[in-house]
Design goal:
Length: 174
């Protein structure tokens, strides 16, 4: 499955589609958000390669992956749905990533381009205009990691504002 067309050129898991008839690409920002929906729908091991700059101005970002809170104590982790693939920005920029999950007083508020990763590789990417505010587990690139290390290569961050709101707590986002 892939996204393609004049407004968006993304390869997902080795496949590229042309045009926007696949129902996922309605422009670069909407197309990337559709890719995130696909990944979060159980394809967190898929590899993604960008083929264009993507401006998310006016959109509220939903991160790739998530931290699931314990049903009896939202400040405790029940499980991780972590991104495990390769996210290759191919030298392109994602700009204007914004989200505020700080009112969700829970580990489920994890926030970043990716909420959580395990063994993922993120490379050849620039993030600019990032504005994230989360209760905890927040970073521009990744909110938290689990299981195994993350590989980050040739990733640049410009103009970022990252806020964690939980008091007396440490934050370790990337």
């Amino acid at each position: 499955l892939a996204l393609g067309g004049a407004a968006l050129d993304v390869v997902v898991h080795g496949h590229r589609a042309t045009g926007t008839g696949d129902g996922l690409a309605a422009g670069a920002a909407d197309g990337l958000m559709a890719v995130v929906e696909l990944l979060n729908g159980g394809k967190l091991d898929y590899n993604v390669t960008l083929g264009a700059n993507i401006d998310l101005a006016g959109k509220t970002w939903t991160p790739i992956g998530k931290v699931v809170a314990n049903s009896s104590d939202a400040t405790k982790v029940a499980s991780y749905e972590a991104y495990k693939g390769i996210f290759d920005g191919a030298g392109y920029t994602i700009s204007n990533l914004t989200a505020d999950t700080s009112e969700t007083k829970s580990v489920a508020s994890a926030l970043g381009l990716m909420a959580t990763t395990s063994g993922a590789t993120i490379k050849n990417l620039t993030l600019t205009g990032v504005d994230f505010k989360s209760y905890e587990y927040v970073g521009a690139l990744v909110g938290t990691t689990t299981g195994s290390s993350i590989t980050v290569e040739n990733v640049h961050l410009r103009d970022a504002k990252i806020q964690g709101m939980r008091k007396n707590y440490s934050y370790a986002g990337v």
